[in-house]
Amino acid sequence: MNNITPYSSPHYFIYLLLLLLPIIIGLWFGKRFRIYDLFATVVILITAFFGGNMKQGISLIFYILFEVAVIFTYRAYRKKYNNFWVFTLFVVLAIVPLVFVKLDPLLNNATISLFGFMGISYLTFKSVEIVMETRDGAIKELKPFEFVRFLLFFPTITSGPIDRFKRFQKDVNNVPSREEYVELLHSGVNKLMKGLLYKFIIGYFFGTLLLPKIQILTLSYRGQTPLNLSWALVAYMYVYSMYLFFDFAGYSLFAVAISNFMGIKTPMNFNAPFKSKNIKDFWNRWHMTLSFWFRDFIYMRLMFTMIKHKWIKNKVTIANFGYITLFLIMGFWHGETWYYIVYGIFHALAMITNDAWLRYKKRHRKSIPSNKFTHAFAVFLTFNVVCFSFMIFSGILDKLWF
Questions:
Q1: What are the catalytic residues?
Q2: Which of the chain's ends, N or C, has fewer CB atoms near its CB within 10 Å?
Q3: Domain end: 131, 155, 175, which one?
Q4: 193 with 248, same domain?
């Protein structure tokens, strides 16, 4: 049996829903079968990580053992001390496995990929959150089993959404009332049906039927036009953007739906992002759990540190530096290729430009019109800016130019 990627085929949902049936029945009658929850998690992990190729499963085990050691060593230290550099060291240690995995393609050295498995990024975000909130005092009690359960919550393990520990614990340690669970079931079914539409119908149309043909047409202009650019590239930009959204949003809907069936209110990842009126609004709607994680644990902490130590006095410069740092990290997180880095820089510049425009607009609000037409233009402009960034992100320019 080969490893089965979660939510990869309609057949997966038949087996998954059969596995969830005892959980659903238990919650319907006000019971949470914790032993069966553990059994269901083990079954899903075996199918996803321990199929024909057990390398991912072994990597997952090493990763969990490593992170448990890091987290609980730091928690033991934090009970007596609170040194900033020790805290920084443990944050770095928590991300070391992810760094190894990200460097593997760059160095072409398989020996450093001990921790390579699906979802390592999302588990790392959770681990880093635990370290940071331990230092802040927000997480006062934590048992090894609770930490592992948080990391290995199977509906979200491979691609999120990224939950927060305290919010997750509140749900998993309680049983919803019959009325609350009926609402969760209704919400779960709606999200499941919407996810099937997004991923297996609309996403399939754009990603499987249309995108390869548009890519072939786009690449056919190599050597034929200046910089190998053509109108086909514009078509590719829009088609890829649609595929990226519907495929990923569909997956996220599945994860939230299955969580709901299990009585867990996993946060949503998308909120009509193509209706955004500016780029900041877009990042409040697109992959929200990731963007909010970066905002809370990188951007805001960097801003606080710079203001506290007065490294830079001008608030606008501080914010701009924060954007560049934040989106460079996000670019490198996606990969060490030039187009991911340019994608990050592009969004940093877009955020800086957007803030400059909002400041200008605030000073000249009487002379700048604001109505449904200007709003529609703002949505249209933001949509095209975002699609252009996704074209960079796709790597098509790398194929055209290099």
A1: 334
A2: C
A3: 175
A4: yes
